[in-house]
Amino acid sequence: MPRETFAARSTRARLIIDRLNAAMPEAKIELHATTPLELLVAVLLSAQTTDKRVNLVTPALFKRFKTAADYAAAKPEDIERIIASVGLFRNKAKAIAALGRALVENHQGKVPLARAALAMLPGVGQKTAGVVSMHLGGEAAFPVDTHILRLAKRMGLSDAATPDKVEIDLQKLIPQRLWFQGHQLLIWHGRRCCAARSPQCQRCVVFDLCPRRGVQ
After folding, report:
1. Which of the residues are catalytic?
2. What is the pLDDT of residues 57-89, one digit of tens each?
3. Which residues contact 39 (CB under 8 A, 6 or more apart)?
4. Is 92 helix (H, G, I), strand (E, B) or coil?
5. 48: nearest Cα among 136, 141, 138, 123
6. CB 119 within 8 A of CB 125
7. What distance in Å separates the CA atoms of residue 53 and residue 61, rounded to the nearest whole number?
8. How far is the C-alpha of 214 from the C-alpha of 198, rounded, in Å?
9. For residue range 116-174, what is the model confidence (pLDDT) as tens digits?
10. Are the C-beta atoms of 132 and 40 separated by less than 8 Å?
């Protein structure tokens, strides 16, 4: 079989996004947040934890800590007690307290919009920074989580091994106007159909567009 050209791969990537959007037009971030700070903390907590679990602990957390200054003044143990059911809760509690201090000291207590500035905050990596920035209208991005990393490989959209390099590949293949929705659609598809261990190829709406269908 001849090697797929970049143009053909780009066309296929756009078709995948279009078809997923037709099947899941309601796709959106599933973390509950009403302010930029709540969004930042929720995304930080979601690492290696389900959004559902995060949404169970954030109401009490956000009621107790409303501002960056509140987090800055907190002891990690105060945060730990609220988020104890979340994976890596001790490390995350320390990161959130440090995050509050960094926001107060360097950003007047406000969440910055620039991805680079977000990525420099304690506990915030490139993926979290990208998610927060694009949802706050800061910068266009195609952040890569574990679902997108898996799907990009299965669907033959990237052979890169790291999230940062996969994001670069996806940004080249897919028009910027589709990055925001494409990011969310691939996550939803990964959660609802193209699972890590048992992809449900028999009900996949992009089955015919996947050159590695059935490969785990």
Report:
1. 127, 145
2. 999 999 999 999 999 999 999 999 999 999 999
3. 31, 33, 111, 132, 135, 136
4. helix
5. 123
6. yes
7. 13
8. 9
9. 999 999 999 999 999 999 999 999 999 999 999 999 999 999 999 999 999 999 999 99
10. yes
Token readout for 104 is: 């107060």
Long-range contacts of 132-138 (CB under 8 A, 24+ apart): 132/36, 132/39, 132/40, 132/43, 134/179, 134/180, 134/183, 135/29, 135/39, 136/36, 136/39, 136/111, 137/113, 138/112, 138/113, 138/114
Cα separation, 78 vs 196, in Å, equals 35
What is the distance in angstroms between the CA of the first residue and the CA of the last residue of the chain?
21
CA distance 41 to 178: 26
- List Cα–Cα distances, 132 to 15, 41, 70, 118, in angstroms: 26, 10, 20, 8
The reported pTM is 0.93
